[in-house]
């Protein structure tokens, strides 16, 4: 048997079976992602919610934040919209996977790329990079708009330290949410089920575990994916009892990695 390199490395043929390289699979997944309208509508919604709501919240609360009665830091609001924008990251991560399962096109994808791990990896890379870029840009625009109103009240926040960290952290957090949802999408294979499961875990259960009493409840709260990962996306957390930003994000990253590993095992063993 011979191995022949074809099309400048994009396809490797072994024993008469064409196997696309990872670069070729990556290009194919990017083409699929950018060729559907739902991707662009979701990204527009991410920008509008992330930057628009941050600006709106800072405008509406600037007077109060500057008053002696304020019990919150302006840093808790300067990326406020990104908490809502995570919903659109969940939607995008789900659609990248579950749309193909819903239409049956996933069988065509797996027929063209027999190595299913490459499909999972390519989808993950495309979603993570896209959300990281869009999330970071959105956070910077939201900061510019929100800080304008904070500055007028004399409580503006310079773009340095924890504020600067939260700008890039917002992009990283959205990328992590996208990867988390991609993994759940491969496990659940249903759009509504994937979106509702991730949102329930991130937004509802993450707050409900506060009701668990004692030290056990405190640690469960800290380790919930949404609570652990979100700290890196805000200069000052609304909940000071959570993990430190980078420690929490490392925990979140480990949780995402475990879920992706589970998805890889299931995808290889389960029929499409």
Automatic annotation (TrEMBL):
Transmembrane segments: 40-62, 77-97, 125-150, 170-188, 195-216, 246-267
Keywords: Membrane, Transmembrane, Transmembrane helix
Lineage top rank: taxon: Bacteria
Name of the protein this chain belongs to: ABC transporter permease
Species per Swiss-Prot/TrEMBL record: Nocardioides caricicola
């Amino acid at each position: 048997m011979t191995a022949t390199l074809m099309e400048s490395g994009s396809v490797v043929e072994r024993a008469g079976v064409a196997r696309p390289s990872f670069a070729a699979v990556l290009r194919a997944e990017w083409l699929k992602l950018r060729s559907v309208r739902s991707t662009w509508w979701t990204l527009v919604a991410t920008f509008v919610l992330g930057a628009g709501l941050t600006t709106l919240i800072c405008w509406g609360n600037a007077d109060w934040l500057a008053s002696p009665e304020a019990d919150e830091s302006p840093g808790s609001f300067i990326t406020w919209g990104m908490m809502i924008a995570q919903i659109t990251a969940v939607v995008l991560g789900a659609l990248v996977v579950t749309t193909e399962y819903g239409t049956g096109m996933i069988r065509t994808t797996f027929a063209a790329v027999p190595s299913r791990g490459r499909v999972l990896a390519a989808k993950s890379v495309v979603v993570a990079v896209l959300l990281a870029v869009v999330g970071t840009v959105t956070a910077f625009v939201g900061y510019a708009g929100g800080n304008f109103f904070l500055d007028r009240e004399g409580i503006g926040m310079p773009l340095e330290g924890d504020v600067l960290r939260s700008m890039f952290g917002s992009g990283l957090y959205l990328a992590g949410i996208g990867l988390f949802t991609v993994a759940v999408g491969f496990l659940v294979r249903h759009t509504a089920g994937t979106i509702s499961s991730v949102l329930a875990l991130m937004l509802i259960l993450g707050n409900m575990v506060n009701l668990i009493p004692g030290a056990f409840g405190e640690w469960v709260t800290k380790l919930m994916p949404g609570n652990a990962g979100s700290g890196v996306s805000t200069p000052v957390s609304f909940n000071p009892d959570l993990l430190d930003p980078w420690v929490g994000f490392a925990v979140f990253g480990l949780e995402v990695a475990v879920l992706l590993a589970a998805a890889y095992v299931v995808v290889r063993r389960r029929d499409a």
